[in-house]
Structures are given as structure tokens and as C-alpha cells.
């Protein structure tokens, strides 16, 4: 087990539906802690840069349109095996393929409007956390 940090985003649809609290409570009840959090309204350039790895994918324009349609909540989650744990709590990218009880199965609408984003590996977690937070904005229990 490793003490890790991961980036979590509550996407615009979930912010608009006023379900931030129930999403955060799933992280907390699974043992993850919020080490940093901020509401952000991404502009097009920021969204394109954050999701640059998907630039050539057919869903990219729809993804950028969605992620810029309203405010998001960006968070650093911290805990034992936080990256894998967060992905298990979120469920599969496509809510229809996700396991019942996961955030995306219970609250997601479709593959684009899937409620939450989470880093997929330690390297991406470091890059994604640095995209939104300076080191002194992260108030975790370690480092
Ligand atoms: P997220 O975890 O934010 O990472 C990339 C996002 O692209 C993903 O969640 C989905 O919201 C969106 N997306 C849309 N279509 C697809 C697809 N076919 N495969 C992967 N991601 C997709």
C-alpha cells in the first residue's frame, strides 16, 4: 500500500445538479481525504490543454464543449492507494459498463457526461495535480 495523491474533478453536469456533497461523501466514506479543493470555470484553452492526450480522438470536441459548459470542482484526494481506489469508486468511463454502486453507474448520464474524472496513474496524477494546484495549496496529511 502506498500513500498517494490523485486529481479528482466533479464535472459541470454534477455541479449543476447540486450533487457535489454526495460525491465527496463517497470518497470520504471510502477512506480518501480532500487535501485541496477549488471551484474552477475552465476556458477552452485550459480544457484543451488538460485533455490534450485525447486531441485526436473523435469524442474530443464534445468533451471540450462539456467541460467548459459550467463550473467544475477540482480536488486533490489523498490516501492509501488513492489512484486505484478513486478509480474503483468512480467506476468505468461509460456509466452503462460501470459496476452498480460506483459514482458513474449511479450518477453518470453517458460516457461524456460521466460525473467525475480521476487520474489514471501516478505520472498523470502528478501532472494533473500540478495543472490546478501549487504545492502550498495542498494541505494533506503528508508531504
Ligand atoms: P475522463 O475520465 O474525464 O477522461 C476523458 C474523458 O473523455 C472521459 O472521462 C469521458 O468523459 C470522455 N469520453 C467520451 N467518450 C469517450 C470514449 N469513447 N472513451 C474514453 N473517454 C471518452
What does this structure look like?
- The protein is of the alpha+beta class.
- The protein has one domain: Nucleoside diphosphate kinase-like domain (Alpha-Beta Plaits), CATH 3.30.70.141.
- Helices cover about 40% and strands about 20% of the residues.
- The protein has seven helices and four strands, in the order βααβααβααβα.
- The chain has helices spanning about 10-15, 20-30, 45-50, 60-65, 80-90, 105, 120-130; strands spanning about 5-10, 35-40, 70-80, 115-120.
- Strands 2-3-1-4 form a four-stranded antiparallel sheet.
- The longest helix is centred in the last third of the chain and has 11 residues, at about 120-130.
- The protein is globular.
- The two termini are about 15 Å apart.
Element-level helix/strand string: EHHEHHEHHEH
Classification by helices and strands: alpha+beta
Task: Write down the overall geometry.
Answer: globular
CATH architecture: 2-Layer Sandwich
> How many H/I helical runs?
7
What is the averaged pLDDT score?
Answer: 97
Low-confidence stretches: none
Order of strands across the main sheet: 2-3-1-4
Named once each, the bound ligands are:
adenosine-3',5'-cyclic-monophosphate
CATH topology: Alpha-Beta Plaits
Q: In the residues, how many domains can be counted?
A: 1
Amino acid at each position: 500500500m502506498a500513500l498517494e495523491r490523485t486529481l479528482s474533478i466533479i464535472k459541470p453536469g454534477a455541479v449543476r445538479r447540486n450533487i457535489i456533497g454526495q460525491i465527496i461523501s463517497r470518497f470520504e466514506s471510502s477512506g480518501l481525504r480532500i487535501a485541496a479543493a477549488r471551484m474552477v470555470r475552465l476556458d477552452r484553452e485550459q480544457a484543451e490543454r488538460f485533455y490534450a492526450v485525447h486531441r485526436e480522438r473523435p469524442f474530443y470536441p464534445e468533451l471540450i464543449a462539456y467541460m467548459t459548459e459550467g463550473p467544475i470542482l477540482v480536488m486533490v484526494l489523498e490516501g492509501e492507494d488513492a489512484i486505484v481506489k478513486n478509480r474503483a469508486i468512480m467506476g468505468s468511463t461509460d456509466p452503462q459498463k460501470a459496476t452498480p454502486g460506483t459514482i458513474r453507474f449511479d450518477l453518470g448520464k453517458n460516457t461524456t457526461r460521466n460525473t467525475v474524472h480521476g487520474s489514471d496513474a501516478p505520472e498523470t496524477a502528478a501532472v494533473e495535480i500540478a495543472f490546478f494546484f501549487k504545492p502550498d495549496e495542498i494541505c494533506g496529511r503528508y508531504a
